[in-house]
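A favour, since you know our structure tokens better than I do. What I am after is a single protein written out in full by you. Could you add the entry underneath, on a fresh line?


***
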Amino acid sequence: MKRREFCRHLGLLLATAPALAAAAPAHQLLDGEIRDIRPRYMLIGPQGSAVSNEDFRGRFQLITFGYTFCPDICPTTLVEMAEILKLLGDDADRLQGIFVSVDPERDTPAALATYTRFFDPRIVGLTGSPALIQGVARNFKVRYAKVARDAGDPKLYAVDHSAGLYLLGPDSRFIRKYGYGTPAQAIADELRDLIRQP
């Protein structure tokens, strides 16, 4: 997608984000599953090297799952993540934004780096083999599945997936999940309090 076209779509998305956020219930985790989350991952970063949850020790991690061809949920979530980083100001140095692809067939490290940079260069895109992605999705209780758009062309598909933001602490432990559409200001206020705790 060309930069000008992407920016035009992003502008439209920003204008319609509240309406998109209201349509989220099908993408929420069941409350009972949250306590079973194992916040561990080993994936591939923008430079093609291994990245794990341990690489961000000492910082909070705000993680979301999606894919670069996603028409609405993923860009809306990344707009919110970028806004959270902006609202945190200097405190954002203690937070790492992470976008994990559930479409490893199309989302290469380079494609993810280009995609996340449009929202905020501080957000890191991670991918991996299908087996690695499946393992991480299991750990975080994320559901995803291909949805064919054209039976005659296997490359034309969408990926239905869980949405929301997962917060890990500086010790890499799971703290909580924010449902899709949680206002950025509310998340930023809570994160600021957590970051500033002695």
Notes: The first strand starts at residue 42 and ends at 44. The CA atoms of residues 58 and 189 lie 19 Å apart.
